[in-house]
Give the backbone structure.
Amino acid sequence: MNIDFENKDSRTKYLNDKLDNLLSEINESYGRVLFDELVTRLQRTIIDFNEEVKEIMGALKLSSDRRNQIMHDLMEGNEASSEDSVANEADKELEDTPEMSAWEKRLERK
């Protein structure tokens, strides 16, 4: 059985076939309604998972881009401007966390 996991229709057919085999006894008792509900819930779970992964990857990309920009500025000798912008961003973030010590705040700016 060759399954093309890149193709949505192929994945759906594969899952439907496997679930049909697993739920043959349940289908006899409860009918197609239970099976359809199960497929719907699986699809929602997969969609939610994909959205969460996209959000996480976007946040990682933003963080990586920001880190690369800081490294580039430091290598170019623009320490003052990059430190100022980083310090301003860090100050805004640190205002929300008053429990940090002065040492932790300085470390956070670096």
